[in-house]
């Protein structure tokens, strides 16, 4: 079986800093209140997404707390929550991890976030240079992993000192919940291959993603480890390619050049992320050359930090592009779209069938009819579905 013939693991995104219909505009925006985030999580759970990513940062609601609230409102959905070394001790993060894993009945995934904005990190008490943050993270996870596996740990390192640290309860998942990580620097890759289960990349063109995967595989092999791969992408899927490209244009239709320039200058000034620099290089702040690879559109990155590209097209087109990434080794997709509630439905209803993923009624074991061909009848009191005559 080829890599692209295997069903892909598809997660969605919880916009814990807010949502909206237009990038770079104050029109039709939505606050990240718990009611709205619950709607997205429950939709993702019903539609067949395997999990959701919750981001971290000063502009986001706290990921562990939000995941705890959403886990009580969902059934199967997994929660990829951010764990940021240095914002708390390894022992405290170990307790957060096991508690969330226990109350969610084993639905926790951990996303290691080491980098970002030096200014924001300084506000959190982290005063380390780029590469040094990964040395610190390695010591942090030495203690964290030992606590998850054994319930007790001691460590005397350059950055982390733990004396008889203890963990009261084990996690549901053994020996620990899976660890995910994304980072493009040499220091980040070297750290990740010694620790993580899944390496994540942002949505760069396939050739660049392929090069990065080979770098990670080579580094992992030197440490005797295997790492699986995932990709973070936005999606603009419509019934036809033309409709999808029109929706992409609409998404940035209220975005002016001054806002783009301000955002790009802020990203360059505030971030020392290699991945962020790679994202910015795809479009160079220009809105006239946004298709950076067939159906890969960099318009999101004009104003959004981090993941800045979207796959745009019909279900068949987007599925074909995803298979190209699968053939490179991508097994997991973390998707999103604007607004996230409506786009969760569009992606599941239009794209999932092309990817061989289960529809909602298949996943929950509910049949919608007796096998007769039906059409939607408008939802009247006579019945929503009408049997087609002669079929």
From TrEMBL:
One of its GO terms (molecular function) is alkanesulfonate monooxygenase activity. It comes from the Bacteria. Keywords: Flavoprotein, FMN, Monooxygenase, Oxidoreductase. One of its GO terms (biological process) is alkanesulfonate catabolic process. Its EC number is 1.14.14.5. SUPFAM superfamilies: Bacterial luciferase-like. It is an enzyme of class 1 (oxidoreductase). Coiled coil: none annotated. It catalyses: an alkanesulfonate + FMNH2 + O2 = an aldehyde + FMN + sulfite + H2O + 2 H(+). Belongs to the SsuD family. HAMAP family: Alkanesulf_monooxygen. This is Alkanesulfonate monooxygenase. The lineage of its organism: Bacteria, Pseudomonadati, Pseudomonadota, Alphaproteobacteria, Hyphomicrobiales. The gene is ssuD-1.
């Amino acid at each position: 079986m080829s890599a692209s013939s295997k069903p892909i693991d598809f997660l969605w995104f919880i916009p814990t800093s807010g949502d909206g219909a237009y990038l770079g505009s104050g029109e039709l925006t939505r606050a990240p209140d718990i009611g709205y985030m619950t709607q997205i999580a429950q939709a993702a759970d019903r539609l067949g997404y395997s999990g959701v990513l919750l981001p971290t940062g000063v502009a986001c609601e706290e990921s562990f707390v939000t995941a705890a609230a959403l886990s009580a409102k969902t059934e199967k959905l997994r929660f990829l929550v951010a764990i940021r070394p240095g914002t708390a001790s390894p022992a405290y993060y170990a307790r957060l991890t096991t508690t969330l894993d226990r109350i969610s009945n084993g639905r926790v995934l951990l996303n290691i976030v080491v980098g970002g904005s030096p200014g924001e990190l300084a506000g959190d008490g982290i005063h380390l240079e780029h590469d040094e943050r990964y040395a610190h993270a390695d010591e942090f996870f030495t203690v964290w992993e030992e606590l998850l596996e054994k319930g007790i740990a001691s460590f005397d390192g350059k950055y982390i000192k733990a004396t008889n640290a203890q963990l009261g309860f084990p996690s549901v998942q053994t020996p620990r919940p899976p660890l995910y990580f994304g980072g493009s620097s040499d220091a980040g890759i070297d750290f990740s291959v010694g620790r993580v289960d899944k390496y994540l990349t942002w949505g760069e063109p396939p050739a660049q993603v392929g090069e990065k995967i080979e770098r990670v595989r080579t580094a992992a092999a030197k440490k005797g480890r295997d790492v699986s791969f995932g990709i973070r992408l936005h999606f603009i899927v419509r019934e036809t390619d033309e409709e999808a490209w029109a929706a992409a244009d609409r998404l940035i239709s209220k975005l002016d050049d001054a806002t783009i320039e301000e955002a790009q200058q802020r990203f360059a000034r505030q971030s020392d992320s290699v991945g962020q620099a790679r994202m910015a290089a795809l479009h160079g702040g220009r809105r006239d050359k946004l298709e950076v690879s067939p159906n890969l559109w960099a318009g999101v990155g004009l104003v959004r930090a981090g993941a800045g590209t979207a796959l745009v097209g019909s279900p068949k087109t987007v599925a074909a592009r995803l298979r190209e990434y699968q053939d490179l080794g991508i097994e997991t997709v973390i998707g999103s779209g604007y607004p996230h509630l409506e786009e969760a439905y569009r992606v599941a209803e239009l794209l999932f069938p092309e990817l061989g993923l289960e529809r909602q009624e298949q996943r929950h074991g509910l049949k919608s009819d007796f096998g007769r061909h039906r059409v939607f009848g408008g939802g009247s009191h006579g019945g929503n579905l009408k049997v087609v005559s002669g079929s």
